[in-house]
Every structure is written in structure tokens, then in C-alpha cells.
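ugh ok fine here u go
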Amino acid sequence: MQAPCEENGLVDGVIMWQATGVEGGHDDRVPAWDEDSRRASLRRLAIGAQVTNLPHKLPLVRNKSRRILVKQVMKTLICLLLLTGLTLSAGELAGKWSGKFDITTADGEAKPDSAVMNLKVDGTKVTGTAGPNEDQQWAIRNGKLEAGKLTFDVVLEGNGDDKGTLVFDLVFDGETIRGSAVGTSPGGEKMSAKVDLKRVS
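structure:
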């Protein structure tokens, strides 16, 4: 029969007791190891339990890392799509546009008219010309395109020193330019207009 394993006061996991004497028929025994040995053994048992549990936790750590990586990739893709959309919108705006420019005077009188715009785009900056027809064009100032919103102003030159100003507040949806313009005519009369343009080239 094989003898039980004895290590650090343990026999097959059972504490060995050491007799210190027998008095009056009473067996007075104390553990064969001191307090420091007991604490060291407990620490070893605790470390063993932690190591045993590690394989169960590792899949959770890997899954969490994978989820973080997927989120980062999705954020990058969304940013690229947004930048691509803005670039395409800016590129599509450049060109020649024409259509309706329906004026309403200060006294409420409606005057249907036309408008032609030749637009250039550099990032969010918009330049070019605008006017009632191809022969009469004025320079666009302070042009800007942001998230489909197109804004600029035009100085209208009349006979002599007479000048007027129109401020445009438009929306570009990729196919049309629509919105409004307000200001004064070269004669100083207040006016507003509804704008509805389509691409010519």
C-alpha cells in the first residue's frame, strides 16, 4: 500500500497534527505548521484558483477587443462616406444653370424673369457669375456651399452709378438649385425673388 503524500504539514490534503503531550488522558495536539505556513498555502490555493479561471475569461476579453475594432472600422467608413458625399456634391454644383427667377416687388407686383448662373467650386468656396441672361452677368461674392446650402451675394450694376444688391439663400440637392433672393434693384427698389434652376451643362 502506497504511503500518503506528506507536504507542508498536509497528508493527502488533511492537516497533520503533532502530539505535544498527553496529560490526564487528554491528547493535547497542535497543527504541525505555523501561521506563516498556513497563509502561504492559502495564497498558493488562491493563485491556483485564479489560473484555473483564466481560460474562461480569455474569450470574453477577445470578444470585447473584436467589438471595439469593429466599431472603429465602422466609424472610419462612415467618415469616408460623408467626405465622399461632400466632394461629389461640390463637383456636381460646378457648371451652368438656368431657370426661373420670379420677382416680387415691394408693392406686391409679380414679375416673372429668368436667371443664369455659371458656378465654380473649390472645396466649400463658390465663385462664378449670375445674371438674368448669358449676356448680362455679375460676379458672385462670398459664395459658400455647406451641406447642400448655397449662399452668395451679387452686386447689380445699372446705368451710371446705380447699383443694387441681391443676397441668395439656396438649396442644392444634386439636380436643382432652389431658394430665394432678397435685396434692392439698381434703382433702389426693394425686391425678392423665388429661384428655381436646372443644370444646362
